[in-house]
Specification:
By secondary structure, the protein is an alpha+beta fold. It contains nine helices and 17 strands. It has helices spanning 24-38, 49-56, 59-63, 74-83, 99-104, 110-119, 143-153, 165-174, 231-242, and strands at 11-16, 42-46, 65-72, 89-93, 121-130, 133-135, 138-141, 180-184, 191-193, 195-199, 221-226, 252-257, 259-264, 269-272, 275-279, 282-294, 304-305.
Length: 307
């Protein structure tokens, strides 16, 4: 459950992604600031991460801050909650991928977001932790992480969906699908697979749902372990995933737990929330109710009205 907010607080910090905050994005940022002011808030827009950090370092300002708005894609959202643990956030979805905003029903409208903030409806989400990094959506090991790793190795400027085409083709030609071992909680014997997806919030790229039982606020990780490895099998899994039938396949294991450890004899790439995150071995754990997000009143049944 979300904590009780300071209803006297009226500051809103907005962290803008420089690449997303141009063109139509700039217009929505202007609308957000304008409407927040009309609603008696004191917004402040930041392009510089360092300036926002200095501003939030003042305890008095931090106490008066309703939320930090992440204006960009899922990467901007993750950057904000990693740098300001314990501070509520909201999202103005301006990036290429905005999976969390889509899940919460947050539109690309600065004016609408100002009213969401004014409503002060907050939902508590679990976070996941891997090494020093926290994330909210999901992690994976295997083919899709290899695609993302190749993308980030050659990244030049803004990423669009077209940016993934060449890395996908390279992974199809070159990825070797090594087997790895997965321990969930204190299981004495590992499971094995060639693609693992560890889900917190049940939304994936292209709007697909890898783990339909995941809720994001139950203190558990939902693991889907795909056991076969080849380009043909990846296409087969993707087709079944698109049809919502993958969890019924005999070679797809479904398991839940609070801690997941992955090891392998050769390094296997890892990604979290669409960003490259190194290689195995890794351990991922859940941090219950570690993130609060200001959301529309009807975003989910677990939304609490603190107005």
């Amino acid at each position: 459950m979300a904590s009780t907010p300071n209803t006297a607080a009226n500051r809103v910090a907005i962290q803008r992604n420089p690449r997303s905050g141009s063109g139509a994005g700039r217009h929505e940022l202007v609308e957000l600031v304008r409407e927040l002011k009309r609603l008696s808030f004191r917004p402040r827009l930041f392009k510089s991460r360092e300036r926002l950090a200095a501003w939030m370092a003042d305890p008095a300002i931090r106490a008066e801050t309703v939320c930090v708005v992440a204006a960009g894609g899922d990467g901007t959202v993750a950057d904000v909650f990693n740098r300001y643990p314990g501070v509520p956030i909201s999202i103005l979805p301006l990036g290429t991928e905005n999976l969390l905003a889509r899940h919460l029903g947050l539109s690309r409208s600065g004016r609408e977001l100002a009213h969401v903030i004014a409503g002060r409806h907050r939902r508590a989400f679990d976070l996941c932790q891997m090494r020093e990094r926290r994330f909210v959506l999901m992690a994976s090991a295997g083919f899709d992480a290899d695609v993302i790793s190749r993308l980030h190795e050659t990244r030049r400027g803004h990423i669009s969906r077209a940016s993934y085409v060449q890395p996908i083709l390279e992974s199809v030609r070159k990825y070797e699908y090594p087997e790895f071992r997965v321990w969930v909680d204190d299981a004495p014997i590992p499971l094995t697979g060639r693609l693992a997806v560890i889900v917190n919030v049940p939304i994936y790229a292209l709007g697909l749902s890898v783990a339909r039982s995941a809720t994001g606020d139950d203190g558990l990780l939902d693991v889907r372990l795909f056991q076969r490895g080849s380009a043909f099998q990846m296409v087969r899994y993707l087709c079944n995933l698109a049809l919502g039938r993958h969890e019924g396949l005999a070679d797809v294991l479904s398991v839940r737990g609070r801690r997941v450890r992955i090891e392998s004899d050769v390094p296997v790439p890892i990604q979290v929330d669409g960003d490259a995150a190194g290689q195995t071995p890794v351990e991922i754990s859940v941090l219950p109710s570690a993130l609060e997000i200001l959301v529309p009143a009807g975003a989910a049944t677990s939304v609490k009205d603190h107005a």
